[in-house]
Amino acid sequence: MYLGDEAWPDLESYFESESIALVPLGSTEQHGPHLPEATDHLIAEAFARAAADRTGYLCTPTINIGVSGHHRQFHGTMWVDPPEFRQYVESMTRNLTSHGIDRVIYVNAHGGNVPHLREVGARLRQAEVAYAIEWMWDESIPELVDDLFEQNGPHGGPKETSMIQYLESDLVHDDRLREAKEGGVPSVDAAGTVRHGSRTFYDAADNTDNGVLGDQTDATAEKGRQLFEAASDQLVYLCEWLADQPFEALLPKEHV
Amino acid sequence: MYLGDEAWPDLESYFESESIALVPLGSTEQHGPHLPEATDHLIAEAFARAAADRTGYLCTPTINIGVSGHHRQFHGTMWVDPPEFRQYVESMTRNLTSHGIDRVIYVNAHGGNVPHLREVGARLRQAEVAYAIEWMWDESIPELVDDLFEQNGPHGGPKETSMIQYLESDLVHDDRLREAKEGGVPSVDAAGTVRHGSRTFYDAADNTDNGVLGDQTDATAEKGRQLFEAASDQLVYLCEWLADQPFEALLPKEHV
Amino acid sequence: MYLGDEAWPDLESYFESESIALVPLGSTEQHGPHLPEATDHLIAEAFARAAADRTGYLCTPTINIGVSGHHRQFHGTMWVDPPEFRQYVESMTRNLTSHGIDRVIYVNAHGGNVPHLREVGARLRQAEVAYAIEWMWDESIPELVDDLFEQNGPHGGPKETSMIQYLESDLVHDDRLREAKEGGVPSVDAAGTVRHGSRTFYDAADNTDNGVLGDQTDATAEKGRQLFEAASDQLVYLCEWLADQPFEALLPKEHV
Amino acid sequence: MYLGDEAWPDLESYFESESIALVPLGSTEQHGPHLPEATDHLIAEAFARAAADRTGYLCTPTINIGVSGHHRQFHGTMWVDPPEFRQYVESMTRNLTSHGIDRVIYVNAHGGNVPHLREVGARLRQAEVAYAIEWMWDESIPELVDDLFEQNGPHGGPKETSMIQYLESDLVHDDRLREAKEGGVPSVDAAGTVRHGSRTFYDAADNTDNGVLGDQTDATAEKGRQLFEAASDQLVYLCEWLADQPFEALLPKEHV
Amino acid sequence: MYLGDEAWPDLESYFESESIALVPLGSTEQHGPHLPEATDHLIAEAFARAAADRTGYLCTPTINIGVSGHHRQFHGTMWVDPPEFRQYVESMTRNLTSHGIDRVIYVNAHGGNVPHLREVGARLRQAEVAYAIEWMWDESIPELVDDLFEQNGPHGGPKETSMIQYLESDLVHDDRLREAKEGGVPSVDAAGTVRHGSRTFYDAADNTDNGVLGDQTDATAEKGRQLFEAASDQLVYLCEWLADQPFEALLPKEHV
Amino acid sequence: MYLGDEAWPDLESYFESESIALVPLGSTEQHGPHLPEATDHLIAEAFARAAADRTGYLCTPTINIGVSGHHRQFHGTMWVDPPEFRQYVESMTRNLTSHGIDRVIYVNAHGGNVPHLREVGARLRQAEVAYAIEWMWDESIPELVDDLFEQNGPHGGPKETSMIQYLESDLVHDDRLREAKEGGVPSVDAAGTVRHGSRTFYDAADNTDNGVLGDQTDATAEKGRQLFEAASDQLVYLCEWLADQPFEALLPKEHV
């Protein structure tokens, strides 16, 4: 069920019987010469909608702009700074509980959002307001990702390329995949900016000239389909696990 | 030009020659028994995209969740509190200037966002970071709105109903228009909650049982088309006016 | 009863039997060549004191400095920025409840304070700390204002001029009323800064060279007296209405 | 010169030639059974106005509500919490500099405001925005205070009683001076709440049943007059010293 | 008992039977040419550890960096600004209560921390989270301090010099005591920066060229020993007094 | 060079010639039945002091209390919440630059601090205030850690146990190593709380009954020595690399 499409009286029975919401969160940021800036929020929305369709759980509209300051050197990257992102997400989540939601899956497709969603989730749980957890599609199927790609990226690599080839093929510049690969770096390791145990970089531009990593020529829409289906399964399982828990079991453990 | 669809190298020439961005902002909130919760962000996005298409200026992805706490009593309303909304919008706008944008039109379709967008805009202008102004479609064509409807609402009334009938007809419950009218109130005045000059209400629920005002039976998709075209013209003119100004002319006046 | 004049033991019986306070809030800002910078806080205080005298309800000392950044270009305008104003007013109001006050009328005489007082009031009500509402004298008697003046201003116009002529005649430069009119603009509309539905101005100085609007030559102390008495009546009625409500009736409505 | 009384054009020459402002700050809080809650802001305003009259420097309207949470147990005490007070004063002071003010004397009559005014002043000076210092009348004439009273208070004692007897005699309950003395304590020391070097009290109510300290029967209006005149002299001298300094001399010293 | 040395299971019985913690707080800041920058946190830690050893109460690790911006002109001074200090200490203290601590002694050795610790303590007490009070060694033995030294400083004077000579003699440059005295000032009074009742200084550098006050040549390790023992006694007594109080007796008094 | 031990004049030459500081940061939190709560700050301090000794660079006093809310269920864990930690560290670092420091290594020994130190570092770099990076000893020698231990933990495992056995052997309960192992879990994976790609845990207590992971019986002081020496080498190399960079090379890259 997609919240945005519904009139309020039609949501009443959902809130009476269910307490889960899936909230898609992405980013609007450079994804190399071949992928659209919308990449992350398109992916997040696709997963959240698919899982909502399959399970009947509620999907909300998408938060399209996240924590992407580390891509600031590339045209078009939009972002909010971390404190503002956390506060926006926390306020939105707290308010969602006024309708009876007490568990939220942040269906996230942007690595830069992760620590902030974790911080918000920890705070909400500790306050016993809601149990909100972060899910990222590629983390749910690490073996398949490894099987399909030699150099998966992460950012703007074949993993994300395949996904957009599958979901929104018109938005991929297939004729730039080689350029994407050659203008970027194979991996963070290859960039040589982790020095003596310290990440001495802060921005994507410290590591890669064109903003991407990995071997984009390894991407296909068919791989995207496999990834999407496999990860959607995982998200569905997560929804089911979450729905099965009594709320008390989701709260912080007692002091020893 | 829609920022979300573009790869970063394809935005370079835009930022070299132009400095305007249209940012759609709406809300996700109850709009009565007949309209979807997405109403406001659908409208905002439609106007911003249309004006961007007609002028070639840049449209960004949409901020879907705004300041809607005054609709909290109705199922499904999502919101962030005012400080968090202002900070999110301000941070986003400041960061957008890193690419050369120095003037922004907040293409807004939710009255509850207005004072907050004005506050952010005033702060950004005073700091000489950007000149950002708020635009709401119905404010741009007050006479046409008055001509078309006896009781225009505002919230969830025939004005917004016509607009969604035109833009997303599948999302309107046409069979509930009479119910919408009969369960609501004709206007804020009719609710009688402005007492001795003081607005003694804070929430929509203080004024209306079903969340809406006005005569929804007066709405048609054809009226929606007229409204959309007329207001789109105004937005295009505003873009053109704005693009013509030297940045200095947009900054605060000197102290007398 | 004026709180500032009382010793604490003499307030005990008031707090035992009543729970209303009137808090005057104004601004210290330019009001054109003819009116004093204190205009708004003088007016607010006069109304709050008068209504307290007539009803026996408690009036507190005045908050003299408000949100007036939009008058910054004119000598002597004092202001605090919106977040600081809201926080100051909210903290003051929350603390006032420690004595048993649970309903507050912000007797306000400055338009620039309005959205901020509304925001604070909404927050306090939602938190069930207090029911605080904003009242502005001219909003309570719109017909009389329209009857008395062709071009009422708003800022520094004949409406406010008459009021100070009545309340503090020594502080009005009657010999500058023509200059005030000729150096200003008749109305915001006349300034032409609402473009295609967007308020493209932020500061008074964007609209008027001398800081004022309307026809000041239309002002008289006698009109001021009429306005003061009529609006005072409204404030008294508002106090009485408010005192009659059970606190529960003032709280937010339940979720549908 | 009192800013509140002036129209903006009449302030121009002041700001062209001078850069000092006196800002009165007080509190609205219990001052025992005999003194009005306005005591501190009345005193602050009286000193600031007097010094402005004698020197020609600018006095602004008064901030009437300060940091008085430690008097919360007594009817009618109003306060804002420390962070909100500091932010309000800092914002007001920063904005005042837009007219050319670069040095401010906080004419303060409430001990509870002191550390907060010092903190704000330090921040403004360090930022080279303004040089703002706190002045309290009794600190400027310690010997005279000691000469006139055996047990001066501080809070609501004979020092403040004499001052209000002189400034606003109608607001003093002279018939309660003995009651004030007998219901309070002679001094903080006498309350016995400084234990082993630690102030174990936070509120006035921890030390005194009726909210006051000292021997109020020792107060007279004539003593008030002497105090007022002597301290006014000191404030005038401070203004003169401050006006004589080049701004650079008021800024923080260089790093060694 | 020192918390840092213990494994968690070994703390269980303490928290079952006791609810006091001693938290040492100091600063890292210049203390003249003869004393180490660690002076204040070394002293704070020494007192807290000693009192914990003598009483069996719990001592936590030390907060080494405090509010020392007023020493910024001297090499090596470290500090956090007041809001950040208060928030850090408040958060730490609130969280400490999760183990059952409800009373805290801030064993402080830096005057610049005092108002901030008082502010945090007042807030925590008002919220009924914890009763936390500030203790500074020299405030507990004013007579002995006066007996031992003619000009005790305060900052970097013979009082602190003696203490470090006793506690960490290797860190005192005994050969620079005369230089310390001659390069500094005897007292704040002697600096002449309290003008007409106003402290016109903000930084130590406004008063003293080498950062210190008092007569350092009057310091000896033996005096340090006397001071340490006498003040340790006071801290022990304070612990005992505090442990004897029922928690209710430590909370704010009721409204009159 | 250890800042805490120095008198300010003795730091002058350092700041004239160098601009690096090492700031140790740890935590005070449960580390199982066998290790002291001080574990992380002891380790951080030991590395920072050792590297400072070997290179001559400046080491500051330690921040002993970090972000450890996820250990709250175990007696004695102390923490500040993430916003307060970030603000404290940011303020401290900004202020340190007043002496000429422009590059900082956060010598960190607590995983929970990492994202917060990264966030602060990114902000400071973007503002061009300082280049501050986080370093954690075990990240610098991943191969040696893998070689030495089968199940390294992370928290309270053999890696940290060996380190404390080497650095502070008296503080390790060697007789509880088997108990530590048997009461905990081998790894996060083994806890089974990463479900379908989502970390469904927030607290250590969600994963482990006694607070620790890994095989503590595999720890020895000799392994601790090897780890300490190898990682110290890495920290020294990092210092040298950092000192060799021109400041401009450390700043954010230009926009493409």
TrEMBL record, chains A, B, C, D, E, F:
Its cofactor is Zn(2+). The keyword Metal-binding applies. The keyword Zinc applies. One of its GO terms (molecular function) is metal ion binding. It comes from the Archaea. It comes from Natrinema salifodinae. Keywords: Hydrolase, Metal-binding, Zinc. PANTHER family: 2-AMINO-5-FORMYLAMINO-6-RIBOSYLAMINOPYRIMIDIN-4(3H)-ONE 5'-MONOPHOSPHATE DEFORMYLASE, 3-DEHYDRO-SCYLLO-INOSOSE HYDROLASE. GO terms for biological process: riboflavin biosynthetic process. This is Creatinine amidohydrolase.
